[in-house]
Amino acid sequence: MKTAVLGSGKMGSAMIRGMLRARLCEPGELTVTNRSGRLPEALCEWAGLRCIRDNREAARDADYVILAVLPQQLPAVLAEIRDALRPEACLISIAPGYTVGQLSAMIGQACPVVRAMPNTPAMIGEGMTAVCRNDAVDEARLEGTIRLLSALGKTELIEESQLNAFIGVCGSAPAYFYMFLDALADAGVLEGLHRDQAIRFAAQAMLGSARLQQETGEAPSVLKDMVCSPGGTTIEAVAALENAGLRGAVITGARAAAQKAAQMGKK
Ligand SMILES: NC(=O)c1ccc[n+]([C@@H]2O[C@H](COP(=O)([O-])OP(=O)(O)OC[C@H]3O[C@@H](n4cnc5c(N)ncnc54)[C@H](OP(=O)(O)O)[C@@H]3O)[C@@H](O)[C@H]2O)c1
Questions:
Q1: Helix axes 195-216, 220-227, angle to 10 degrees
Q2: Among 13, 15, 31, 35, which is best to mutate for testing ligand 1, by the most ligand atoms less than 8 A from CB?
Q3: What is the tens place of the pLDDT at every residue in 50-104?
Q4: Model's pTM, two decimal places?
Q5: Domain definitions of the chain by residue range
Q6: CA-closest residue to ligand 1 atom 47
Q7: Is the CB of 66 inside a 6 Å radius of any atom of ligand 1?
Q8: What CATH architecture does domain 171-266 belong to?
């Protein structure tokens, strides 16, 4: 399975590392590009991995072409490769703002196009990636795409109309969790913990809580109620957080991200 990854910054490199670590492809089956043509430091451990500047050359023989450049760089890269792509090559874009229809129109042929939206925990294989596709993507290509993206963590096929909501609750969500984690650590410091201890305790509480929800499948409200003993410390905190508008703030924030993604798609 020959794969080209156009752009080898944070996300491109995370995808390449994940694919190689999971042995989804061999270094010789991958061609990576960037503007310098030099393999990024993070990828130097893999002998045989080729990094070049020429996107056309990288895309020419590829079965899968992953577009991992910034959204503003995408039109130029697509214009560069459109005549070099094999008709059956599957194009995978991870850029927000460009719909499957817009990407197909920019390529100008009935090429299989997948839009994938990862998030930053993909860098350690713990990402959540949503995927949608155009009609030219058959089941075999979809399966191949999902296999490649599984290098980033979990993957789920959704309707394109749900993608902006996905960005609001998942693509942008690591930033909200880090804000929450940072604030919780501040509270720990205020109450006398060292900052590194406070971050360690709060991060493990966050990780463990998420895993408990995944493993039990319980609604978050049920798990929250389990922590709240009558007249106890937690219900005191819950009431204070409700008074401070935590839930409303989270809903407003996630909707702002979803709405911004929708606006970017209309440009
Ligand atoms: N980072 C995230 O959290 C995240 C999450 C979800 C989706 N995404 C999406 O993933 C995509 C990549 O984001 P990123 O954070 O990885 O960006 P990044 O770190 O800035 O990487 C961009 C890469 O594109 C390369 N590049 C620029 N112009 C090029 C060209 N004409 N031909 C070939 N390569 C070119 C750059 O090469 P040089 O280094 O040589 O300039 C760099 O390797 C974006 O669409 C972004 O929206 C990112």
A1: 130
A2: 35
A3: 999 999 999 999 999 999 999 999 999 999 999 999 989 999 999 888 899 999 9
A4: 0.89
A5: 3-164, 171-266
A6: 95
A7: no
A8: Orthogonal Bundle (1.10)
